[in-house]
Specification:
By secondary structure, the protein is of the alpha+beta class. It is built from 8 helices and 26 strands.
C-alpha cells in the first residue's frame, strides 16, 4: 500500500489589498517577468578534489560528498589532474567504469518552486584504452532532476518492485554531447576536449532538496566499457521561491535522507537522538520569520448587569506550545491505523514532541542541537545567554484590572507571537551521512504577545438574561409567588405550584384509643 505524503509547502500564495495596490503601482516601474536574484547553492566537493588521485592515474573511489548509482555501484572512475587534462588542472569523474554509471547529488536547502541552474564542464574521455572512434564525435550523457513519488505506511520510501531502487519520477532532463577530438592508438592517454564555456542545466525544483543525476549514455563493447564522458567543476545557483505564509502548523515540510536516498524519519532521527553532538542543525535564514496567531479569548467574560461601574482584578494565564515536523511525521506513522474517537485510542502512546524537555518525554539531544542552530542563526555563534531562546513552549501570567461599564461586557484576548524556523540536521560522524529537513513553529522571543482588554455592549441574549428575575424557589412564607418561569421540566414545574390555602385544608385528628387512655 502506497501513501502519498505532502513533504513540502505549496507554492507561494500572496493576498491582501495592500499587496495588490502595491503590485499595481509598481507595474510601470518593474517588468512583468522580473525575477529575484540568483544566489549560490552549496555543492560539496564541486571540483572532485577529494579523494586525491595519484598523478597519471585513475581509481574507482567515489568523490567525497557524491554518490554512485544503486543497486549497481562502482561504475565510476576518478581521474587525476594529469590524466583528466583539464585546463585548470582539476580532477574529474568518468561516468563509465566497466559500463555506464550514474553520479548523484542533492541540492541541499533548495525549496520546492525555486528555479535552479547547474553549471559544469565536460569532455570526452582521456582514458588510454579509448579507441579513436569512441572520442572523435564526442560522448553522450544525460543530466536529470528527479522527484520522490510515494511512501509506505511505515514512512519508508516506496521501492520499485522487489528491488531496492527507490521509486522516483523524472521531473526535468536534458541530454548532452561532449566535444570530440582526434586520438591515435589505445595505449596512450588522449588530450581531451574540455568545453570552452560551462554546460548549463535549468529546472524548477519539484521537491525540497532536489536530486540531480549525471548518467552516461555510452554503452560500449566490454573491452571499451570504461571509456565514457568526463565531468568536473560543478556549481549551482537558484532563484529562491518566496516564503509561503499559508503553511499550517501541522503541515510543515519534512524529509529524511541517508546519503542522497530518502529514508524514514524514524530511521534518520535515531541517529540524531543518539548523542548531543550526533547531528548539527543549521537554520535557513531565508525561510525563518515571525508572525502572529489569530486572537483567542482567555478566561471568563464579565457581564455587568448592574447600574454602576464594576472594577475587577483578575489573573490571566496562557500557554503557547511548540510544533515541529519531525514529531508530526513520527506521530503520523505511529498512529497511521488509529481511529479517532475510538475507545482503544487513548493517545497514551503518542509520539512526544522532539522539542520538549526530557522530563516531558521528548528528546533532549535533538532539542539541544536545534537550539544551538537557532542561536547561531541569530548571530550568537558562542551560544551565550540570549533574550530570544529556542523555546519549546512558553507560559505567561498577567494581572489585569478591569472597569466594566453598566450594560457592557468585558473579556481578555491574546494574540500569540510565533517564529517559524526551517533548516537541516546533518550527522557529524564520518561514518554516517544522515540529513533531516525539519521545520519548527515556536513561541517567539523577538516580538511580544499581544494582550487585548476588550469591552463592548451586551448582546440581545445577554440583555434578556440581565432582565430576568432571580431564580427563587417557592416557600411557605412568600405567599405562593411564582418566582420561576414554567418550562418543560417536570421537576421545575413542581417548584412553582401554588400551595393550597390554609382555610381549604381538611384538618384530621387521630382519635385516642381506649388502650391509650391513662
Amino acid at each position: 500500500m502506497l501513501i502519498s505524503v505532502s513533504r513540502t509547502p505549496a507554492s507561494c500564495v500572496l493576498g491582501g489589498v495592500l499587496l495588490l495596490s502595491l503590485s499595481l503601482s509598481l507595474v510601470a516601474l518593474t517588468p512583468a517577468h522580473a525575477e529575484s536574484a540568483w544566489t549560490p547553492v552549496d555543492i560539496e566537493n564541486p571540483q572532485f578534489a577529494l579523494p586525491a588521485v595519484p598523478p597519471a592515474a585513475s581509481n574507482t573511489n567515489t568523490p567525497t560528498g557524491w554518490y554512485q548509482s544503486t543497486p549497481n555501484p562502482f561504475r565510476l572512475q576518478m581521474f587525476s589532474p594529469t590524466l583528466a587534462r583539464h585546463p585548470q588542472n582539476l580532477q574529474a569523474v568518468s561516468l563509465n567504469n566497466n559500463g555506464a554509471g550514474k553520479l548523484r547529488q542533492r541540492l541541499w536547502n533548495v525549496n520546492v518552486g525555486s528555479k535552479v541552474r547547474v553549471r559544469f564542464s565536460d569532455s570526452a574521455s582521456t582514458l588510454a584504452a579509448c579507441t579513436p572512434g569512441e572520442v572523435a564525435a564526442g560522448q553522450k550523457y544525460r543530466l536529470t532532476a528527479y522527484k520522490e513519488t510515494a511512501y509506505e505506511a511505515n514512512g519508508e520510501p516506496a521501492k520499485v518492485g522487489n528491488t531496492q531502487e527507490i521509486a522516483r519520477t523524472v521531473h526535468a532532463t536534458q541530454d548532452y554531447t561532449t566535444l570530440g577530438y582526434p586520438k591515435t592508438g589505445t595505449t596512450t592517454p588522449g588530450n581531451g576536449a574540455w568545453s570552452d564555456a560551462p554546460k548549463v542545466f535549468e529546472f524548477t525544483a519539484a521537491e525540497d532538496n532536489p536530486l540531480i543525476v549525471f548518467e552516461s549514455l555510452e554503452e560500449n563493447a566490454p573491452a571499451d566499457a570504461s571509456c565514457g564522458p568526463l565531468v568536473t567543476d560543478v556549481s549551482a545557483e537558484e532563484q529562491a521561491v518566496a516564503i509561503n505564509h499559508d503553511v499550517e502548523q501541522n503541515e510543515m515540510p519534512f524529509s529524511a535522507f541517508n546519503g542522497v536516498d530518502e529514508t524514514s524519519m524514524a530511521t534518520a532521527s535515531n541517529t540524531c537522538k543518539s548523542a548531543p553532538t550526533a547531528c548539527r542543525f543549521t537554520a535557513d535564514p531565508r525561510y525563518t520569520y515571525q508572525y502572529y496567531l489569530a486572537n483567542r479569548i482567555l478566561g471568563e467574560a464579565y457581564l455587568n448587569c448592574t447600574r454602576n461601574q464594576i472594577v475587577d482584578r483578575r489573573k490571566v494565564t496562557w500557554t503557547e506550545e511548540g510544533f515541529d515536523s519531525i514529531s508530526q511525521e513520527l506521530g503520523r506513522v505511529k498512529n497511521a491505523h488509529s481511529v479517532d474517537q475510538s475507545a482503544a485510542n487513548t493517545g497514551a502512546d503518542d509520539v512526544n514532541t522532539q522539542t520538549t524537555p526530557a522530563s516531558l518525554g521528548g528528546n533532549p539531544n535533538m532539542l539541544q542541537q536545534a537550539a544551538a542552530g537557532f542561536q547561531r542563526n541569530e548571530g550568537n555563534p558562542n551560544l551565550v545567554n540570549t533574550t530570544n531562546p529556542f523555546a519549546g513552549s512558553r507560559t505567561t501570567t498577567k494581572e489585569v484590572d478591569l472597569a466594566v461599564q453598566p450594560g457592557e461586557a468585558s473579556w481578555i484576548e491574546v494574540q500569540g507571537s510565533r517564529e517559524r524556523v526551517e533548516g537541516l540536521f546533518r550527522s557529524t560522524a564520518t561514518n554516517t551521512a544522515v540529513t533531516i529537513e525539519a521545520s519548527f513553529d515556536l513561541p517567539s522571543g523577538k516580538v511580544p504577545d499581544r494582550l487585548y482588554e476588550r469591552t463592548g455592549p451586551l448582546t440581545q441574549d445577554e440583555k434578556k438574561h440581565c432582565l430576568t428575575e432571580r431564580p427563587l424557589k417557592v416557600t411557605p412564607d412568600n405567599g405562593g409567588t411564582r418566582s420561576l418561569m414554567r418550562g418543560g421540566d417536570e421537576a421545575g414545574d413542581s417548584l412553582v405550584h401554588t400551595p393550597v390555602a390554609p382555610f381549604s385544608r381538611e384538618t384530621r385528628l387521630t382519635p385516642i384509643t381506649a388502650a391509650a387512655k391513662p
